[in-house]
Amino acid sequence: MTSPLRLGTRRSLMATTQSQMVADAYTRRTGRAVELVGVTTFGDVTKAHLAQLGGTGVFVSALRDKLIDDEVDFAVHSLKDLPTKQDPRFTLAALPARHDHRDALVGSCKFADLPPGARVGTGSPRRVAMLSALRPDLEYVAIRGNADTRIGKVASGELDAVVLASAGLARIGRGGEIAQIFETEELLPAPGQGALAVECRADRPDLIEFLSVLDDPATRSAVTAERAVLAALEAGCAAPVGAFAVDDGHTLNLTAVVVSIDGREAVRKSAAGSPSEAANLGRLLAAEMIAEGADRLMGEHSH
Ligand SMILES: NCc1[nH]cc(CCC(=O)O)c1CC(=O)O
What we know:
Elements: E1 5-10, H1 13-30, E2 34-39, H2 42-45, H3 61-68, E3 74-78, E4 90-94, E5 103-107, E6 119-121, H4 125-134, E7 139-141, H5 147-155, E8 161-165, H6 166-171, E9 178-181, E10 196-201, H7 205-211, H8 217-232, E11 241-247, E12 252-259, E13 266-273, H9 278-291, H10 294-298
Helix pairs in contact: 8-9
The protein binds the ligand NCc1[nH]cc(CCC(=O)O)c1CC(=O)O.
Organism: Nonomuraea terrae
Family: Belongs to the HMBS family.
Subunit structure: Monomer.
């Protein structure tokens, strides 16, 4: 009998839920058992504001340490938390079919119905910038902590609403509290939002082959283009950059935006191309955006 695969996961509800989803999908497809191994990460224990931690990857490195130490076989990350520069010791063996890519408002009314001066919580400069463009009359409050903590600030009355990723809310069973989902025309999601990444060591070709049953090619081309924009802009997860692509099986349609943090200026562009040229499409779009001043808009939030 084959031994179970060991899946390293952060201990938060969102992480264990998404890890369990991937574990179940793998077992369904292959018949092989997967056991979850809980790992505590720096990103879970630190009190520092995420945007001040010097970029991406705080949730990722502890899981990668366990891969290197051979304590786990693979890990599942939220793709949007993964640095665009891939560490050569690891491979994204599968990018499963993406869940909802959009952002959602949790609160007692829709965004347009919030009274002037209402306090809206979000830790993301991207969301602050784009929401400020729609409603400059609201107060945007930097918040941190897991989704549960953030939603709690609405229940306690400290905030009128919070904005979180729809996919994450669904994963922790709080999708029912969503007052509104933002369409991409008004709030373009973070590159890779809603997608998971299945990662293992690059020196385990057999395992990469096993895990590849979970890969969804249309998701892979879409998020490859989105992440290529982010990489070419030399922006990190804290930059006010949105990107979203759809691969319909023939054509890859990509839209990206960079917004000044006050929401007053934006460079937004779209492009279409072949899914097999996803990375190029993203790079070219980013170059056009830079030519129109995108890097100036990012200011201190680049890198
Ligand atoms: N930045 C933290 C983070 N990383 C992934 C998700 C949620 C879901 C996803 O995009 O897969 C969240 C929470 C959020 O942004 O609301």
